[in-house]
Design brief:
The complex is a heterodimer of chains A (about 325) and B (about 300). Chain A is mainly α. Chain A is about 75% helix and about 0% strand. Chain A is built from ten helices and two strands; from the N terminus they run αββααααααααα. In chain A, strand 1 and strand 2 (about 75) form a beta hairpin. Chain A is globular. In chain A, about 45% of the residues are buried. By secondary structure, chain B is mainly alpha-helical. Chain B folds into two domains: about 1-55; about 60-295, MetI-like fold (Orthogonal Bundle). Chain B contains twelve helices and no strands. Chain B has helices at about 1-5, 20-55, 60-65, 80-110, 110-125, 130-145, 150-175, 175-185, 190-220, 220-225, 245-255, 260-295. Chain B is globular and about 70 Å long. Chains A and B meet through helix 1, helix 2, helix 3, helix 4 and helix 5 of A and helix 2, helix 4, helix 5, helix 6 and helix 7 of B.
């Protein structure tokens, strides 16, 4: 009796242990496979884009990047028009969105009482949830005409109007309208990250500044900004990456013209937007692979921006931990 | 009076370097911050208001049950609704299991170095522009096979993967250590602990991540342009062919000069944004429940 009682569970537990080890191994194996898959996917995307762009890279070389041409009839292609559009729209968006985002984050963390902050934070979050195609629809049919009739004439009436980039006739679609739509898209991204950063600034640091007699604003500028500066740069870069990569809303609002406009009020085009326009099918091999070349440039710009942001975040975290 | 305060040695405002100016700067900075917050929320209200104003009158039973009209006939967006639902559904099936597994590997198995690199891989993947993902899928699948709803779903799944994986991994890391220890102490194996203890504890957070990712990809146009955009305007469930979708329909109509198509674009956009907002509210509900659970436990 006793031996039987002893023997049976032993066999059982042996079997079970074996099964258990197998289960553990299997589960870990599948999890590793999934993680490998995700990493391979990233490499595959990069490799595939360059592979598809290869004919254009070979025939046009690096000079493609600074060639100002897009002429399917003469088979002349270059990226400068679109790089200009991408950099200028994203740059304007960045200039407007950064101070606004920081101000919103400050309002939510420092000024607003909790009852006010929560709904405003939700609304800013929801702004990020608006699909780009919907924002673009609004941009082309409502916002664009408003900018043409009100904002652009107003800018031309100010001293800024003397600048060539603000010259010419106001237009409902163009670089400027696209930049403003991008601004709306990146404000929620940048402000959400800034808010996180400001929340994490140690209370005793700002308290110390206040105790030394600085005003609330001086404490924010001198202590919070200083503490969160690298994080703010990363937040801005992430917003910039988003602005670089946006294709749809820009396509709807930028006017889609294959030229570098003198005035920002005029239509132009960006990398993402140009690629999106060509979905119906490029007509020649050169044109198709040139589109892919544009995609490769866009991908490199986005990846560099993003990696830079990651790098800053990692450095920032390490420095914080050292303190 | 003023002469007296001027020499009062105990009045700190006298020697505080233009306190009045500093107070004004503070007031100005404060009002700018308030103004910015009002501005951002105002834009949301303006966009939503415009959608309701321009789109609501177009909504009817026909709009939801009939396919897109060809030339001036009355009709709706039923074809696009069916297509979007199928494509987003397939994307979820492709992306969610892999995302959760990646998250489990990062938080339960990987060492700190591998975990950090995988997080960076996910963040970089998240930063790849949607249009580039679309071109990628076009290059490996559409060239040679033609457009299909499955390829569109695959492109959306690539976008969902980093979002869901990061959200899941973050929530797995806040599941209390004590839960794992208790389970191990009872002799439960690691994978059983993960499957039966940790995942159920984190389910609220995972659902939040999934719902937010679904809301985001449901409105994505760029990955669908190259994979499932050239489609007949009829209600179809054949996912091996290109199917019409809500975002692509809005995109095409938004650039149309025809006022009728523009009106349909507004109504379709209203439907899309209603879905997106609903998903976001759902996410808030899940997130709230999760927080209560973890705090209660």
């Amino acid at each position: 009796m006793t031996t039987f009682e002893h023997a049976a569970p032993e066999v059982d537990s042996d079997l079970r242990r074996h099964g258990i080890r197998l289960g553990d191994l299997l589960f870990k194996g599948i999890a590793i496979l999934a993680s490998l898959g995700a990493s391979v996917l990233l490499v595959l995307i990069a490799w595939q884009i360059f592979d598809l762009a290869w004919p254009a890279i070979q025939s046009f070389g690096l000079s493609f990047i600074w060639t100002e041409a897009w002429d399917p009839v003469k088979n002349q292609f270059g990226a400068l028009i679109f790089i200009y559009g991408t950099v200028v729209t994203a740059g304007i968006a960045l200039l407007i969105a950064t101070p606004l985002s920081i101000a919103i984050a400050l309002f939510l963390t420092e000024i607003a009482p909790r009852r006010v902050a929560a709904p405003i934070a939700t609304m800013v979050e929801l702004l990020a949830a608006i699909p780009s195609v919907v924002l673009g629809l609004w941009g082309i049919l409502v916002f664009g005409p408003w900018v043409r009739d009100n904002l652009e004439p107003w800018i031309q009436a100010t001293p800024l109007g003397a600048l060539p980039v603000f010259s010419g006739d106001p237009s409902q679609s163009g670089i400027f309208v696209a930049a403003l739509v991008l601004t709306i898209m990146i404000i929620p991204i940048t402000s959400a990250i800034c808010r996180e950063l400001f929340i994490r600034v140690p209370q005793e640091l700002t308290d110390g500044a206040l105790a030394l007699g600085s005003t609330r604003w001086e404490a924010i500028r001198g202590v919070m900004f200083a503490y969160a500066a690298p994080g703010i740069v990363a937040a801005v870069l992430l917003g910039l990456g988003r602005a670089f990569g946006e294709a749809i809303a820009v396509n709807q609002t930028i006017g889609n013209r294959n030229a570098i406009p003198t005035s920002w009020f005029e239509p132009g085009d960006s990398l993402g937007s140009k690629i999106a326009s060509e979905y119906v099918g490029a007509t020649s091999v050169e044109q198709a692979s040139s589109i892919l070349y544009l995609a490769a440039i866009l991908m490199v710009i986005s990846l560099v921006t993003n990696l830079l942001a990651q790098f800053i975040v990692v450095r920032f975290e390490r420095a914080r931990r050292a303190v | 009076m003023s002469e007296l305060t001027g020499v009062d040695p105990f009045d700190i405002t006298v020697r505080s370097n233009g306190l009045r100016r500093r107070r004004i700067v503070e007031k100005v900075a404060g009002s700018l911050a308030v103004g910015s917050a009002v501005f951002a929320s105002g834009i949301l209200l303006v966009v939503l208001g415009t959608l309701v104003y321009k789109g609501f009158s177009q909504l009817s039973v026909d709009f939801f049950t009939k396919p897109r009209p060809l030339f001036g006939e009355s009709g709706g967006i039923a074809d696009a609704l069916v297509g979007s639902a199928l494509i987003v559904g397939m994307a979820m099936i492709m992306a969610i299991p892999i995302s959760v597994l990646v998250a489990i590997y990062i938080s339960e198995y990987a060492g700190p170095k591998v975990a950090r690199s995988l997080k960076i891989v996910l963040d970089v993947l998240n930063g790849v522009p949607a249009i580039v993902v679309g071109i990628f899928v076009f290059g490996i699948l559409v060239v040679g096979n033609g457009q299909s709803a499955v390829f569109g779903a695959f492109a959306l799944a690539i976008l969902m993967l980093p979002m869901v994986a990061r959200a899941t991994q973050e929530i797995l890391e806040v599941v209390p250590r004590s839960l794992r220890d208790a389970s191990f102490a009872l002799g439960v194996t690691k994978w059983r602990t993960t499957w039966n203890i940790i995942l159920p504890a984190a389910i609220g957070g995972i659902l939040t991540g999934v719902v937010i990712a679904v809301a985001r990809v449901a409105g994505e146009t760029a990955p669908l342009l190259f994979t499932t955009s050239i489609a007949a305007s009829e209600i179809s469930t054949n996912v091996t062919e290109a199917l019409p979708t809500l975002p692509v329909t809005i995109f095409v109509f938004s650039e149309s000069p025809d006022p009728g198509e523009q009106a349909a674009a507004w109504a379709a956009a209203l439907v899309l944004i209603a879905f997106v907002l609903l998903m976001n509210i759902l996410a808030k509900v899940f997130a709230g429940r999760k927080r209560r659970q973890l705090e209660g436990g």
